[in-house]
Design brief:
By secondary structure, this protein is of the alpha+beta class. Helix content is about 35%, strand content about 25%. A hairpin with a 5-residue loop joins strand 5 and strand 6. The longest helix is centred in the first third of the chain and has 11 residues. The protein is globular.
Amino acid sequence: MSLHAQDLSKHQWKDRLILIIASKNNQKFQQQYKELQKEPEGLKERKLVIYQILPEKYKTGFKEKNWKKSTELFEAYNGKKSDFRVLLIGLDGGKKLDQTKMLSAKKLFNIIDSMPMRQAEIQKNEQ
């Protein structure tokens, strides 16, 4: 899956994306959001942008009041029609992880840190 939703294509080659998708604002959705919110430095270091996506609206980041009305992202990225999903999209726009259970920040960071592009970033920063 590549970045085919208009709004996400602007991130390609600049940001990695975490899409938290739920059919309604439920407990898993809130827990996933809180898990990632605890790690702002780790998210920033790995160029991660968080998208919270519900059927009728979405928002980015951790600001509480910037919901945008749209069904496009939900329809585009909840193809399996699950009530909760977490997707990781890489710098290249490709899907790197797709799961229907909570994702710990530690697991997320380990996945990203093992990617070739992230390894190159780490080496570049060490020089």
